[in-house]
Amino acid sequence: MESDVATPTTPFSPAEDPRTMDAIARARAERKRTETKLFELLRIPSVSTQAEHAGDCRAAAAWLRDQLADAGLARAEVLETGGLPCVYAEWLEAPAGAPTVLVYGHYDVQPPEPIELWHTPPFEPTVHDGSVFARGAADDKGQLWIHVAALRAMLADGGRLPVNVKVIFEGEEESGSEHLDAFVAAERDRLACDVVLVSDTHMLAADKPSIVASLRGMAYCEVQVTGPAHDLHSGVYGGAVRNPAEALAHMIAACKDPVTGRILIPGFYDGVIEPSSEEREALTQVGFVDSEFLDEAGITASWGEQGWSIYERIGARPTFEINGMWSGYTSPGAKTVLPSTAHAKISMRLVADQDWERISERLETHLRALAADMPGVEDVQVKRLHGGRPVLVETDIPAMRAARTALAAVFGIEPVFTREGGSIPVVATFAEILDAPTVLMGFGLPDDRLHAPNEKFSLNQLHLGVETSIAFWHAYADEHAAAAR
Amino acid sequence: MESDVATPTTPFSPAEDPRTMDAIARARAERKRTETKLFELLRIPSVSTQAEHAGDCRAAAAWLRDQLADAGLARAEVLETGGLPCVYAEWLEAPAGAPTVLVYGHYDVQPPEPIELWHTPPFEPTVHDGSVFARGAADDKGQLWIHVAALRAMLADGGRLPVNVKVIFEGEEESGSEHLDAFVAAERDRLACDVVLVSDTHMLAADKPSIVASLRGMAYCEVQVTGPAHDLHSGVYGGAVRNPAEALAHMIAACKDPVTGRILIPGFYDGVIEPSSEEREALTQVGFVDSEFLDEAGITASWGEQGWSIYERIGARPTFEINGMWSGYTSPGAKTVLPSTAHAKISMRLVADQDWERISERLETHLRALAADMPGVEDVQVKRLHGGRPVLVETDIPAMRAARTALAAVFGIEPVFTREGGSIPVVATFAEILDAPTVLMGFGLPDDRLHAPNEKFSLNQLHLGVETSIAFWHAYADEHAAAAR
After folding, report:
1. Which residues numbered 61-80 in B keep a CB inside 8 Å of some CB on A?
2. Whose CA, among A435, A484, B238, B307, lies 20 to 30 Å from B219?
3. CB-CB under 8 Å, B327 with A321
4. Which of B175, B313, B321 faces A234 most closely, judged by CB atoms?
5. Residues B239 and B138 grouped into a single domain
6. Quick one: B75 and B196 in the same domain?
7. What is the pLDDT of residue A477?
């Protein structure tokens, strides 16, 4: 995004640097254990959006608390939030003047459905082709585990850290972090820090390390369109009753131009900060390969907003996507029902400075206006399931420079800054409540199939991630000291 | 439809006529038994579209075979069709020259889903407010049972029938009668008859007996639209990948004008025989009450093809209805998936002389043409689940006159001829293979909620139906003899 960021001041070689060589050696010696313990965590079906898994979520939290204590952190505990709990731990014995890093991750995972498309059971981690396949492998259990393993390698045998570290793992990220804002506000002192470190994103490729400098926000709504008061026989009533599934289809169709890809909700683009021509030029340099994107998605052609590249469409532009849609009879065979209701789950990714509440409201206004022209649509409900603000992170700050140093040292390639299509709403929370920037140093790969069947995480990325984490603490201590001079 | 049908030649009073008074008295004495035995049948979940209920369908067939034998019919047996079996029985001891009636019904029922909307369990018949509530109560178990009970009342104590009767109950009506054509062709001799009698329709109201003279045909298709090869994370891929749910919405929207209600599939209306102005005038006289229709449907306004009345929309005009639609994540909560596929079940009711195979083909052509303009739609599949021809029945034939006589005698009100929106494809089968017209003398009521939760059948209609059936045999014998003279 910004191509003129200063070169990091302190390149180093972690495996040879006397400050990190012991920890690196220990991490390498413990690779098998690091994997085995991660698989334990992956076996816990901590699906936060499904109430029947609340117990599993709590089990995952307790397990992580024990692991953090075992790794050598202090005050490891499970903290209630009013919903699913957070796990907290800290190590605050760094030298005077050293900065404090808050490591954030989430132990909850997306639902595994559709189960039948998994090649191996979603909660039975299976290693194949150098990757572990399981729900949550990359999002985010495998990635938060990187830092637990790194801290363990650093703190073993009386080891110490060059910075203070606090760890917070939440359990509601996949269900909208409903209680996190209030929790962070209430625990503002405990969580106070100079920077937040999050590994919940992906690199451009295994040989293209990258740091996310922009995140899209999100407005997620569920729509219910009601026609007749109850299901009807489509032969007896069909032709004279507005079919809510058909009405919903018309409404969805009226939300995006099927040719230009332009979102048609009035006022949708208000507030969008378009990238400058310099930034658009820089975005072409991040090494994003269209053909790889098409291969990963399993499509022959991209389609989206006309006038923007694929990379811009997924990172720099807002979206409107149907995540789910259902009405009437969906089992095998034929049933001649004229359904009473039709439903859609709709998420809109937002870019700075769109406001998710205003966007949700505009969607509702638009759908109601469409329904008003469709006699027989008796009701339209738009429920806001959750929302998050878009984020732009400053790239020329000590922690960002340290992340570049650490990635360059471990991967041997200078990382680039990218725009991520996904949303991590907590980044805005940390900025507002803790006044701390967030470094999004993720180790996922683009083909990890987050939220989809057969999610995976590369074991090589796991282990290089641990070494990058080890390198980061020292690089950040150095950058922080240099900036303070 | 035809307002100048000849008045029936032989009005009579079944409860007082010496030929029927014993049977009527017996039927009245056995009303409790008639209900109790029907409830036994309603308890069998004979859902033909769901493979796990195949055993239940066979159990229902065996139960009916036993009841037909017990009622006094001969050769009661379960006949294999290659799919779910038919039940057959006969009584062929009528006087020389008497005609033969084939009674058709179906023992299979629609799936009960959505179960949660039933006030009482769908397969636990519950009497409330004079009706029995259960899946299949009206469609068609309660109605086929009318004739079994009537035959039993006629044949008890050495009783005889004035006509020959054959009974055929099929088990695949709700799944498209896939094997019936071949079965009827193979059993042409056994099933040979002068007329087919079917009670699988409804009257206009309890005090407005009616006979269906027109049935819509149907083309039922299942559509699958494929975008990406597998489910994707909508944050990582959204905006640059054609969302198949959105594409399907655009396709559905392009099938019907949301204002005029006109179906937009090219060539869809080819072959439609529009009712003459005389017929349209006659249709206004059948006593159809718009406000009752709206109340039954639970809607404040009808919507459909502009320029046609509600009654014409559901009976005289072809339709396009979404019976089911699904894509992506449909469970509670938010899942940010960009689905790989989207699906719809679409049924089109057809009027004479539309051809269901040609209509199915035109739908497919239309959807494929739409997809061709949507890059990123990787595949469109249109599977034909079933189809049936539309039917117009002659009204001035002996059996139709007999049906009018029987209904008028029992209900005390002269019946009218109506156009039914539903489809009974077998009517065309019987016309083509057996060269026999079908009399659609149904006893359902418009608010029976066929195919929907809380299906019911009025017990009063059941018992009046039994008496009408008893009256029909004699009225038909008379009309047939008169016509032969």
Report:
1. none
2. B307
3. no
4. B321
5. no
6. yes
7. 96
User: How large is the C-alpha radius of gyration of chain A?
Assistant: 24
Same-domain pairing of B97 and B33:
yes
Measured between alpha carbons, how far is B46 from B123 in angstroms, rounded to an integer?
Answer: 10
pTM of the model: 0.72
Cα–Cα distance for residue pair B441/B464, rounded to 1 Å: 12
- Name the residue facing B421 among A238, A321, A449 (closest C-beta): A238
Which residue range is the domain that position B233 belongs to? Answer: 217-272+318-388
Shared-domain flag, residues A68 and A179:
yes
Which pLDDT tens digit goes with each residue over A317-356? 999 999 999 999 999 988 889 999 999 999 999 998 899 9
Residue B161 lies in a domain: yes
Q: Are residues A381 and A462 in the same domain?
A: no
A396 is catalytic: no
Report the relative pairing of strands A100-106 and A164-170 from DSSP bridges. parallel
Same structural domain, A180 and A250: no
Chain A residues with CB under 8 Å of B240 CB are 293, 302-304, 310, 313-314
**Is B8 at the interface with chain A, CB within 8 A?**
no
Query: Which single residue is written with the structure tokens 């949550």?
Result: A136
User: Residue B11's pLDDT band (boundaries 50, 70, 90)?
Assistant: low
> For B274-289, what is each residue's pLDDT tens digit?
888 877 887 787 778 8
Same domain, A68 and A120: yes
More confident call, A429 vs B91:
B91
Question: Of the residues B173, B174, B200, B448, which is catalytic?
Answer: B173
Euclidean distance between CA atoms A116 and B230, whole angstroms = 12
Q: Is B468 on the interface with A (CB under 8 A)?
A: no
Residue A211 neighbours by CB under 8 Å, 6+ apart: A395, A400, A403, A404, A407, A415, A416, A417, A418, A439, A440, A441
B231 to A321: CB separation less than 8 angstroms, yes or no: no
Instruction: Tell me B116's DSSP state.
Output: G
**Which residue among A30, A140, A170, A173 is the active-site one?**
A173
The verdict on whether B93 is a catalytic residue reads no
Encode pLDDT of B200-227 as tens digits. 999 988 999 999 988 888 999 999 999 9
